[in-house]
Design a protein that fits this description.
eight-stranded mixed β-sheet, binds NADP nicotinamide-adenine-dinucleotide phosphate, Dihydrodipicolinate Reductase, domain 2, 2 domains, Rossmann fold, 10 helices, alpha/beta, six-stranded parallel β-sheet
């Protein structure tokens, strides 16, 4: 592909998240949304009409359209592996919605296929690309608050009716960890540039048999301790707080907070200085990950340095380990 050619995208699974992505692709001058595919033809057609997309396809048709460069897998969790594998096997680059897959075995297999075929593959972990989080990472790496020794995250809300089915249904890989907890896990791994080595967790199960509330405790190789509380049926104060030896950072409105406050105390109990750093995030949070995908593919890179494939696999392994402790197996595993 020539370096300045617009990337042609196809979407599999025209649901809620696909609409946000369609708007991001339409807004991007480097990309073109060429096709949409659904298991239900009328859904693909309606989506195509709404967003002015040329082709409304079946899954078979979309992977066989030679004009399409990349498939965005926007189906619900339990279909990510199957749909992404199908697209890769047909020679398409792939961007998969989070969670990358349901477990690490599936993740490893997708990475293997993409590697074998020299295709681009990435988890659409948009939180790693938004300006507020990029600036936050910069401040952490710069040592603005000294050595980060502890991070607390609470991230929970009462899911609306449109999300209820996929979040609460066991056979659809429901549960708070794969849906919401994964943002917090990926966020801390990104900020610290590490994967936790000690993992402790507890969860409370819904009457539908999925994790509805979960608490995770991690220790990272650097020594940093992390507490994460998440829930899909409790309104929690959504925030991340990073405690360092020189100060602490408050990142409210997790996961897409527009900015954060750095508080400096220089190792005392008195805050001497508080500065708010705005992130100025775009209203469509997916724009940034789209630009990264385009940049990587144009440069001939098969993965992103912001969310490398080994990290997507490692994060699935962390979740596998916690689920093992909870005796939590999905029926299709
Ligand atoms: N919603 C968000 O704000 C959001 C944000 C970030 C990431 N995500 C991720 O994006 C993915 C999709 O989420 P969503 O909220 O957009 O899902 P959704 O609208 O409920 O469904 C998306 C697609 O998944 C398939 N699907 C949904 N329910 C199904 C069922 N019961 N049986 C068979 N297929 C079903 C359908 O594909 P077909 O039309 O082809 O049948 C549907 O078009 C999830 O993995 C989620 O974690 C969502």
């Amino acid at each position: 592909m020539e370096s300045t050619k617009r990337l042609k995208w196809g979407i599999m699974g025209p649901g809620i998240v696909a609409s946000n992505m369609a708007n991001a692709l339409i807004e991007s001058p480097n990309n073109q949304l060429s096709a949409v595919a659904s298991k239900t033809q009328s859904k693909a057609k309606a989506f195509a009409e709404k967003f002015g997309v040329k082709n409304a396809y079946s899954y078979q048709e979309i992977v066989n359209d030679s004009e399409i460069d990349i498939i965005y897998v926007a189906t619900i969790h339990n279909f990510h592996f199957k749909n992404a594998k199908y697209a890769l096997e047909h020679g398409k680059h792939v961007l998969i919605e989070k969670p990358f897959t349901v477990n690490a075995d599936e993740a490893r297999e997708l990475v293997r296929i993409a590697g074998e075929k020299n295709l681009f593959l990435m988890e659409a972990m948009w939180i790693r690309f938004i300006p507020s989080v990029l600036k936050l990472k910069e401040r952490v790496v710069n040592g603005d608050i000294g050595e980060v020794k502890q991070i607390n995250i609470s991230y929970g809300s009462i899911v609306g009716p449109v999300y209820e089915e996929r979040l609460k249904t066991l056979s659809l890989a429901g549960g708070v960890t794969l849906d919401m907890g994964i943002y917090a896990i990926s966020f801390v791994c990104y900020l610290l540039g590490e994967i936790p080595t000690d993992i402790k967790s507890m969860s409370r199960f819904s009457d539908t048999g999925v994790d509805e509330i979960a608490d995770y405790m991690f220790r990272f190789p650097s020594g940093c301790l992390v507490n994460i509380c998440t829930s899909y049926n409790l309104k929690m104060r959504s925030e991340a707080i990073l405690y360092g030896t020189r100060g602490y950072i408050e990142f409210p409105e997790f996961s897409a907070g527009p900015g954060f406050t750095i508080n400096i105390h220089e190792g005392t109990n008195k805050v001497e200085e508080s500065v708010y750093i705005p992130g100025n995030n775009h209203v469509n949070r997916f724009i940034y990950q789209v630009e990264e995908v385009t940049r990587c593919i144009r440069a001939g890179e098969t993965e992103s340095r912001i969310i490398p494939l080994h990290e997507s696999i490692s994060i699935m392994k962390v979740i596998d380990e916690m689920r093992k402790d909870w005796d939590f197996v999905y029926p299709f595993e």
